[in-house]
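In response to a reviewer's request, we include the raw inputs and outputs for one of the modeled complexes. The two entities were modeled together in a single run.
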Amino acid sequence: MAHKQDPEAFLPLTPALFHVLVALAAGDKHGYAILRDVEQRTEGRVLLSTGTLYGIIKRLLADDLIAEARTRPAASMDDQRRRYYRLTAFGRDVALAETARLEQASAMARATRGLRLARGKA
Amino acid sequence: MRLFRWLLRLLPTDFRSDFATEMEEVFDEQRTDARRRGGRTALVRLWARTLLDIGRAVRREHLDDLRRDASYALRMMRRSPGFVVTAVLSLGLGIGANSAVFSLIDAVWLRTLPVGSPEELVLVRRSGGQTIKPNSNITRPQYDHLRDNSALLQDICFFSNSVPVSVTVHGVSERVEAQQVSGTFFETLAVGAWLGRTLTRDDDLVTGASPVAVISEAYWRRRFARDPAVVGRAVVINATTFTIVGVMPPGFSGVILGARPDLFVPWATRGAMPFGREGNSGDGPLPSILARLQSGVSTQRAAAELTNLLQRAVATENTSPVAPEQRARLMDRRVELSSASHGITRLRSELSTPLGMLMAVVALVLLVACGNVAGLLLARASARAPELALRLAQGATRQRVVRQLLTESLFLALAGGLFGVCLASWSLTFLEALTASGNRPLQLDVRLDAHLIMFAGAVSVASALLFGLVPALQASSSDLTALMKRHPGRGGGTGLLRWGNTLVVAQVALSMTLLVVAGLFLRTFQELGRVDTGFARDRIVLVSTDPRLVGYDRERIPAIYEELLRRLRQLPGIASVSLGRQGLVSGGGTSGSVYIEGRAPLQGEHDLVNGSKGLELNAPVFSEVSADYFKTLEIPILRGRGFQPTDDARAPRVAVVNETFARYYFGDQNPIGHRFGGSVEGSNTIEIVGVARDIKYHSMREPVPRAYYRPYLQDPGAWRETTFQIRTAAEATELVASVRRAIASVDPRLPVYNVTSLSDQIEASLHQEQTTATLTSLFGILALVLASVGLYGLLSYAVSQRTGEIGVRMALGAAAADVLRLVIGRGMWLVALGISAGVLLALLATRLLVSQLYGVTPTDPATFMIVALILLSVALTACVLPARRAARIDPVRALRAE
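The model returned the following structure tokens for the whole complex.
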């Protein structure tokens, strides 16, 4: 297990793992909500299935990047089978470190002749 | 949803217990969503994605668990190197011994021939007509008919057994093994040459002019130093010049297991090779026939087709009128096919008992080794109680902890297995030499191959379960509080101790069994060594030669033997020289039916019977000898006379019989003057002139057979090779060189082989007994050492557990002697129990060895007593060290610790 004080030790993150962290950065969520959030945020390009999602959750829990949330919504909005997860401070640091890494990589690519994107293109 | 739940069951237990409920809920939501958004198509897509995803998750999670268990196990092992080294050494010795013995089993039973599609090969034989020689019971014309008309055979060939020939290279003659094969032999086996070419059908047509030969890779290496120019080279085989046309690939040694022919020559050249034993006259049955079936054809179907063809061939052969019952008998013969994929041999039935026994012995050694490691693990389980309790308290399931502990056991076993394979491969050369020596050498190809690695792996895994399961269950079963409370030096661990006691008792019992078996084999070997052979065995050198191999015909043989005897007698330091063909416990011998003049044969007198080496003729053995034979070997003539130089081809035919022969045929009568022969009509041809004392013939173990001797000058044509017995005035091993020179001075082409002393030949005849005794003793001692280490470990652990109790006893006035008595008494009590169980176990085991023993009963009290004493004394040593440590315990410190 990597040292907790060093977010860099976790980099690079897999895209799926990064998207789960990003989804939880917006607030506590249960499994299905994470799944839907990732799907919408990526416009359907990243579709997580249950096996992959909970494999990631298991690893994030073990590495203290996420934790189980103590608060639950009202019973009418809830399902007893659910568990809610929140991003830990350390998890946030790791997500930020990965974001910086990706930005650095894309800035470097933009600065490279032949990879410059045409003006007006997304 | 039921299917989804079932899929989740494939995930590891821990993962399931953490997330299964949530996963079900998420999948529920996904299904509802899919139905709402895309109906059936979206649902099918979701299922497909989920199935793939769960499959990947199952693999990933199990691997992840395994990785974590493995790294944890390695960390634990790094922390206790002493324990790891002891366990790996114990297991390595056990697994190594098993792997080494398995390599022999692999070579004899499991390995297929190194040829193309060996499963298609069958040995072809016609039923009926048992014989001692390898014999297909099919004649050449019948073989030709089968070859030309069968639709179910791809190919068919025939070949002889390996036979000795004399090969002269660079003017030096040596005796090597050759096999005569039909031109289709290599084609049938689908094996090509390494260099040059193999023999082909065309070579069957060459009868006299420029014959060719193919040599084995081993012979090429040994004799020609891997010279590629060997192809095309001329060598003289039995006085005929052959051209070497090819070298076979490494590892190929024909199809007869246990034989390694150096040369393969075409059957058509057999005129140049007077191989008396092979029955290779043109009309007789062919020795061995091998066929390759068309792929997919069953042996039953092929046998039915060949039987039809054979009966047709027999019908056309016998056009002359024969009695109806004789015709019916001829037509009743069937073709039998047996698989030849693993080579053909009589070895398998011969070796099944000794190898089975050896495998049982090493399996017991492995059990003792496993007991040892289990004992070590139990002791460690107690020391690790707090750590395991913590893991259970943190929510790890018992199954998870057991799996973790078993992973550690598996690592130990695999390390032991690796060490065992290294030991086994190191011992293979020794095993190969062991099987290739003695008077019936076997050329077995024992090597480290995939079979051996797989076996060692399987044994390692089985061992891990065997020694790891009980300690793992024990360690994870106790309730948490007990585990948390328990730590070294604080008592407790009684469950573990109970298991430890059981293990020690079992180890002692198994060691006792092994040592008793070893003891009985040692006694057998000693008894056989003490057997009175009936002839003098000291200061006698044996030398064999065979003039027929270099072209001598039967008319010239007596003269050359006389000349050889004369030259050998002239050597300095020679007391007496004789020649005689066989016997003297060389493992070989010739027997022939005997008809006594005026006496009807008894029932079954000339039948084939199952002897120690397969089928044997129930008839006397005989040997052609020179006049000085009885004098050289100091065999007393009890009645009548021995032979004289005047008993030659012109004199009346005479024989000297042994006591057993005289008793069997004449009872109390005097046999001198009686006559016998090899047939009813010729029963008056040979006169008995003397009775010699019984001597051991084939082997030390077998009872003395009926035997008779003939003067070799009266029957020179019947044999190929002879052995000279040279009695020296003093110990003279340096005599061998002058004997070789004397023989070469008569004819330098004469091959000289089997040069040995008579005492060495007798020793060689006991090779198997010596090997068995050595190996079982070795394994017995190994088991004893392992059991002692186990006992020492257990008592040390028990003392460490009872430090407090011993401290209290000493504080209350117990003397050091009392403590010594307490600990040693406990250890010896376990040993006594083990010995009692061992006696019972050994009594059961030794009942199976009756046929292997000689001069000692399977319940020999002396052996049992000696073994028990050895065990007790070794066990006592193992008990003393922990007992002395216990006696030195400082009661004050022990009580303070409490």
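As requested, we also summarize the result in words. The two ends of chain A are 39 Å apart (CA to CA). Chain A has a mean pLDDT of 88.
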